Amino acid sequence: MTPTLRDGKKYIVNCKTQEIHPFELEPDSGILGISIGRYLLSPESFDSAELWTKDQLNTHNVIIIDELGKLELKDKGFHDLFSGILLDQKPDQIIIAVVRKSLVADITEKYCLDNALIFEHPHDLTSIFR
Questions:
Q1: pLDDT digits (tens, 9 = 90+) for 26-42
Q2: What letters, b where the CB count within 10 A reaches 16 and e where it falls short, cover 2-37?
Q3: Which of 5, 75, 111, 116 is the most buried (most CB within 10 A)?
Q4: What is the DSSP letter of 117?
Q5: Distances (CA, A) of 31 to 10, 13, 24, 77, 129
Q6: What residues contact residue 54 under an 8 Å CB cut-off, 6+ apart?
Q7: Which contacts of 93-97 are long-range, i.e. CB under 8 A and separated by 24 or more positions?
Q8: What are phi and psi of 116, to 5 degrees?
Q9: 105: three-class secondary structure by DSSP
Q10: C-beta separation of 99 from 67 below 8 A
Q11: Per-residue pLDDT tens for 83-129?
C-alpha cells in the first residue's frame, strides 16, 4: 500500500509487518529516482514492494497491487511484478489492482484483462468475498 502520511509524502507499507519505507523522494535529495508527474519515486521502494509481494504469493489467496498506472504502461514501476503475478496466478487466487479510472482501459488492454471484474468503489469488492 502507498498511503500519504502526516508529512504529506507517500510511503510504501508492508501490510503484514507494518514496515514502512519512503516512496516519494525530495527533488533535491540527490537520489536518482523514478519521475512520474509531480512525484519522484524511490526505486528501492519498488524493489522492497516486489520482495514483500513475492513473499506472500505462495501463502495468500488475495494479492493487492496499489497501484498500476502510467509507469506500468511504460513497462516500469510494478510492471514486471504484475506481469509475473498474472503468469503464475493460482486458480483460487484473487488479484486486486488499484487503477485510476482514466487508465482502466489502457491497463486492461496492456495486460489482456478482458475478463477482469472492474469495481469503481472499494465497498463493491465485498461481492467477491461472499
A1: 888 888 899 888 889 99
A2: eeeeeeeebbbbbeeeeeeebbbbeeeeeeebbeee
A3: 111
A4: -
A5: 16, 20, 11, 17, 41
A6: 81
A7: 93/61, 93/62, 93/63, 94/61, 94/62, 94/63, 94/128, 95/63, 95/65, 96/62, 96/63, 96/64, 96/65, 96/125, 97/64, 97/65, 97/67, 97/68
A8: -70, 145
A9: helix
A10: yes
A11: 999 999 989 899 999 999 999 999 999 999 998 989 988 888 887 77
The single-letter code of the amino acid at 70 is K
Cell numbers linked to 66: 496499489
Q: For residues 92 and 99, what is the distance between their CA atoms, to the nearest angstrom?
A: 22
What one-character-per-residue DSSP string does 27-67 give? TTS----EEETTEEE-HHHHHHHHHHHHHHHTT-SEEEEEE
Compute the distance between CA of residue 86 and CA of residue 94 in angstroms, rounded to an integer.
Answer: 10
Helix (H, G, I), strand (E, B) or coil at 26: coil
Contacts of 126 (CB under 8 A, 6+ apart): none
d(CA 75, CA 83): 10
Cell of 62: 488475495
User: Which three cell numbers, joined as nine digits, stand for 57?
Assistant: 504469493
